[in-house]
Design goal:
CATH architecture of the largest domain: 2-Layer Sandwich
Strand content: 35-45%
Order of helices and strands: EHEEEEHEEE
CATH class of the largest domain: Alpha Beta
Structural class: alpha/beta
Shape: globular
Helix content: 10-25%
Mean pLDDT: 95
Number of helices: 2
Number of domains: 2
Distance between the termini: 36 Å
Number of strands: 8
Largest sheet: 4 strands, mixed
Low-confidence stretches: none
């Protein structure tokens, strides 16, 4: 068996499907690959995401809705870093991902790239957007 490492996102507010749909609408080569829902009598809320996989720009991610509440959630210390091909694409992604979220570093030239921005989206997932 060949090892494979995937990013796995745990949502605590039942937002996994909404987040996955939002992300796949923003990126090329994006699609839902697998989706399993909690059924009646299972340990999660019926109809919520038990396990799902989706791709963004060909990279696979996994997610689920956690029924038990935890004392932790997403943190910017781990983020999804997106290298953008054009300023227009970077601006589009920044606007969409920051809507309802939090700007950590506004779009600007910080000396290490032409244009860069860092946001937490409305689900709490952290994104770094870079134009080399």
């Amino acid at each position: 068996m060949t090892q494979k490492i995937n990013t796995f996102l745990m949502f605590q507010n039942g937002d996994a499907e909404e987040a996955m749909t939002f992300y796949t609408s923003l990126f090329d080569d994006a699609k839902v690959v697998r989706l399993t829902r909690y059924g009646p009598g299972e340990q999660g809320a019926e109809g919520k995401i038990k396990n799902a996989a989706f791709t963004l720009a060909g990279q696979e991610y996994m997610c689920f809705d956690s029924d038990p509440r935890h004392a932790f959630t997403f943190t910017p210390s781990i983020s999804l870093f997106v290298g953008c091909d054009t300023e227009k694409d970077l601006d589009r992604l920044y606007a969409a991902l920051s809507e309802g979220g939090q700007e950590l570093m506004p779009l600007s030239s910080y000396g290490f790239s032409t244009k860069f921005g860092w946001v937490n989206d409305r689900f709490g997932v952290s994104w770094q957007l870079n134009l080399p």
